[in-house]
Fold this sequence. Notes:
InterPro entries: Enolase, Enolase-like_C_sf, Enolase-like_N, Enolase_C, Enolase_CS, Enolase_N. By secondary structure, the protein is α/β, with parallel strands linked by helices.
Amino acid sequence: LITDVRLRRILDSRGNPTVEADVLTESGGFGRAAAPSGASTGEYEAIERPASEAIAAAREHAVPRLVGEVYAGNQREVDGALRAADGTDDFSKIGANSAVAISMAAAKAGADVLGAPLFQHLGGTFRGRDFPTPLGNVVGGGEHAADATDIQEFLSAPVGAPSVADAVFANAAVHAKVSDLLAERGVACGKGDEGAWAPSIDDDEAFELVDEAVSAVSEEVGFEIGFGLDVAAAEMYDDEAGVYEYSDTTCTTDEQIEYIATLVDEYDLVYVEDPLDENDYGAFAELTDRVGDKTLVCGDDLFVTNTERLATGIDRGAANSILIKPNQIGTLTDAFDAIELATEHGYDSVVSHRSGETEDATIAHLAVATDAPFIKTGAVGGERTAKLNELIRIADDAT
Ligand code: PGA
Ligand code: ZN
């Protein structure tokens, strides 16, 4: 039985305050987790409140429904109590940041009571034998860095890696190779919010550079490394004009579909996230129809980890994979339900970090527990390596 829920403000990787939760149980179980935070957030995400307000609201409304009332190991009851305490669809009362921190901390306390690793408590006992392939952000811009590429993320995808550790090291090597290639070209640059290089180059140049980096590292390590994108196209889309705005051009929806389809062919892209606006299921369906048999078309802002939005996408044939961010929907239960619905309909799940992160590594366990084929959690940087190194440890313990 949960005996205490403690909430505090801690720092995230951007230096902003975020919510951390501790959950304590009668039998001595303990779990601690923290909420991440997005910058290119989807219009339909659950609501993140300012950390101090989210904490105050959760203390008033949620904590009394948990302490002495619910077992930490009963995740659906914990998350049901959070939903009941909030009473809205989007967690706008207690904040999705408080909700997700408590939900994940309860899961960890539940695992602690059992003395089991978190992935196993989350259902991982019956998992398959494959580990998720990490997608590593190596070049980026958009909302994550000023004066860099229009496309938000260029992602190294070591699809041929023999182990999760090999994949993690391959992504770091691609990240380093990109730095070398930039130096050769005389381009100096810093990093964006997720640790990817943020050079002031145009997207065409970035494609050439990343293509060269993944090919070079692939040759070195001896297995296939492809790459993919998070276009984060909702951030580029001008609703009124009905066009996608790039630094030097604009395109109509048809032109955007054509552009992405051409990129998929030219660079053999293995993954394309949010290539179109978050309200345009029709355009997503058209692109999926064209390229869905050769690449993953993933909905992030489109689906926001929400089963209702995913059901609409399934109905309409929009995308063939879904990004899973627990804080987009508010609880682990909701994230699980989205993964389950996706799997039932042949959609691949990609468990993901946010641009604002903490050292919390829950998503590594979530990806392993649910047999997600991919996890997107950066390539370098402490808040990213927290998850990547946890994946290596889980694989080491399990094999
Ligand atoms: P965000 O970006 O965390 O800033 O929303 C990540 C993504 O778009 O996938
Ligand atoms: Zn995204």
